[in-house]
Specification:
About 55% of the residues lie in helices and about 20% in strands. The chain has helices at about 1-45, 50-60, 105-115, 120-125, 130-150, and strands at about 65-70, 70-75, 80-90, 160-170. The termini are far apart.
Length: about 170
């Protein structure tokens, strides 16, 4: 009989432990629901508040005007040429809507494009995956450069450019 009592005790303890687990899971779910996306982002980023704030900012960026820059021709590292056209996706101003300005000055973006692609070889840019890597790298540099520019002008650091598009990409 002692064996049966131990089995009953184990089942009883298991039932209580299962109930405790259910309560913890339900409480965690309630915290996530009550916290909204910010709470979920905070937990998903392991408590890194800077990452959570950056994620929140990313979600609330509203696309503004797209400014197409004049295409440029670059010398590639292997003696080939690349004709590259870029357009900058601006972040809409806080007033909402588009317009008001002619868009960001493209000189920084073109300078960064030249420094990024002039060291590349034609073989480096032939696959779609490699082109995407170069584009992602260039986009990160451009977004950072225009964000730093806003900070230098005494404004609160904010993104003025949120992305880029290639309007031309011709190698010869």
């Amino acid at each position: 009989m002692a064996g049966k009592k131990n089995d009953a005790d184990t089942a009883e303890k298991g039932g209580k432990l299962g109930g405790k687990k259910l309560i913890v899971v339900a409480a965690l779910g309630a915290v996530l629901l009550a916290g909204g996306t910010g709470g979920g982002v905070f937990l998903l980023t392991k408590g890194d508040s800077a990452s959570a704030a950056a994620h929140e900012e990313e979600e609330h960026l509203v696309p503004g005007d797209v400014t197409a820059l004049d295409p440029i021709t670059l010398n590639l590292a292997d003696g080939r040429y690349l004709k590259l056209g870029i357009a900058l996706q601006a972040v809409a101003s806080e007033g909402g809507g588009h317009g008001g300005s002619s868009g960001p000055d493209g000189s920084k973006a073109l300078d960064l494009a030249i420094s990024t692609f002039s060291g590349a070889r034609m073989a480096d840019l032939q696959s779609a995956e490699q082109r995407q890597k170069y584009k992602d790298d260039l986009q990160a540099k451009i977004v950072e450069a225009y964000t730093e520019e806003a900070a230098k002008e005494g404004e609160k650091p904010h993104k003025t450019v949120m992305g880029i598009y290639f309007t031309q990409f011709v190698m010869q």
